[in-house]
TrEMBL record:
Coiled coil location: none
Pfam families in the cross-refs: His_Phos_1
Stored InterPro entries: His_Pase_superF_clade-1, His_PPase_superfam, PGM_Phosphatase
CDD domains linked: HP_PGM_like
Domain of life: Bacteria
The protein's name: Histidine phosphatase family protein
Amino acid sequence: MTPTRFFLVRHALVEPSARAVLYGSMDVALCDLALQQEAASYRWLAHRLPQPARWFVTTLSRTRFTAAAIFAAGYPEAELEAEPDLVEQHLGDWQGIPHEALPALLTHPAHPFWPHGGEEHPPGGESFREVQARVAAVMERMATLLEGQDVVIVAHGGSIRAALAHAMGLTPDQAFVFSIKNLSLTRIEKHGPAWRVAAVNEEPWTPPAQGS
């Protein structure tokens, strides 16, 4: 049986003022300077991602602009299909507040590697457990509808963690252990009823020059 292969790319770095706050599912812009500095990463992705493939982005512009930059770097332009349920965690009333304001608002202990715990439910938003549930449903649906195909998804750190958690049967707090870097590639496969994690955080690597 040919597996359904998912190639998940985290969007590029967002602009500095957005990084100063909890932006969650806010539609923030990419960093222009980082777009220039990361040209090698876009070229690597353009050659690393499979052809042909179905391409999906979320409803937030940072994923669409990241896909466009990969196309500009050499990948043949493909139709981008928007999938709302792969969007980043909605932080409700916390969206837009400075990072230093968050600890006083938490009702559960913070995670060692994340500003809040996996069960924390922001007022007016969603918990990471809820993110896992909606992402799991999308992954299962895509694996069925696109069986045996290659699927490229430009998404978010949260939705990629949620996909890994679904594949591995992890709790929300365990999912936060993963550090998903901007422009990194995570590969997950569906083999019949079983999920397999092929790679996490693939990045371009340039060997040192001889003699250095």
